[in-house]
Specification:
The chain is built from 8 helices and 6 strands, in the order βββαββααβααααα. With about 290 residues, the chain is α+β, with helices and mostly antiparallel strands. The longest helix is centred in the middle third of the chain and has 68 residues.
Length: about 290
């Protein structure tokens, strides 16, 4: 099943007087680059969160953000030093724009929401709360995975459509290829005739055949067709195909480039340019496939 590397998932769980919220985001990347932000009370579980998330994410630049709100009437503890530091820094950045009671109230509210400014006295986490935390993260990861699957279906549909466009352009080469051989043969004979010299017709024909064979593009077309067919097979039958599809696209590019260098025909060159344009779009999209 093809999946996109771009995704988002969010889940929340109410545990007692607490509301645990987990958000997971991912973008494309060659390796797994995972950033985890947990409230201080849950930081001891970071390794478990990373291990759990890596199985789902596999690759890409990803962020996991967990927040917890205590909805009870428990008295919160305010870190006064941290509050003042945040407050002074933000106010200095705002400059003259920090004047006015409404802005002052908004600034204080914003500072109170910053990490570690407000905390609750109870710092212990029970096993039940840990399970609630992990369950919330699992749910967010599951939603991200569903998002990736849906996005992957859209991406692979576009990729296969472009591969078929390349195959169609390849088929359009055939009539020009047949006419090209006669054109090359006639051009060589005209050039030789313009010299006004006697030539050995058998030897001339041998040289023409040798030259035409060097420009033959049958092998390139056969290999390109095989690569296009293999692209379809891999996309429909395998998981985690991003890298593999990228390699196949590279091989398609080799054959298209060789076909263009041997074409010796303006109409075939135009078709080669169109193939390259579609292939570049394929390469860009493949980078988003897991």
């Amino acid at each position: 099943m093809v999946k996109s590397m771009t995704g988002f998932g969010k889940a929340e769980t109410v545990f007692g007087e607490k509301r645990i919220v987990a958000e997971v985001r991912s973008l494309n990347g060659k390796q797994l680059d995972l950033s985890v932000k947990l409230p201080s009370i849950y930081r001891s579980f970071e390794y478990d969160v990373r291990t759990r998330a890596a199985k789902t994410l596999q690759r890409g630049k990803s962020d996991i953000y967990v927040s917890v709100e205590n909805q009870s009437d428990a008295v919160a503890d305010i870190n006064e030093t941290l509050f003042r530091n945040y407050y002074r820094k933000i106010k200095s950045l705002m400059g003259d724009n920090a004047d006015g009671p409404e802005l002052e109230a908004a600034l204080m509210t914003a500072v109170l929401r910053l990490p570690e400014v407000v905390s609750v006295e109870d710092r212990t986490v029970s096993e039940e709360e840990r399970e609630a935390l992990m369950g919330t993260i699992d749910s967010a990861l599951s939603k991200l995975d569903a998002f990736r699957i849906q996005e992957g279906e859209t991406l692979i549909g576009d990729l296969l459509r472009r591969v078929d466009i390349i195959r169609d352009y390849e088929a359009q080469v055939v009539p020009y290829e047949l006419a090209r051989v006669d054109a090359i043969r006639n051009r060589i004979r005209e050039n030789v005739a313009s010299l006004g010299m006697a030539v050995d017709e058998n030897r001339l024909e041998q040289e023409i055949v040798f030259y035409v064979e060097k420009l033959d593009i049958t092998e390139e077309k056969v290999r390109l067709e095989n690569h296009c067919r293999y692209f379809h097979e891999v996309a429909r039958e395998e998981d985690n195909v991003g890298r593999k599809l990228g390699f196949i696209a590279q091989e398609m590019g080799r054959e298209i480039n060789t076909l263009g260098s041997k074409a010796n025909d303006s109409e075939i060159q135009k078709l080669v340019v169109k193939m390259k344009d579609e292939l570049e779009k394929i390469k860009e999209q493949v980078l988003n496939i897991l």
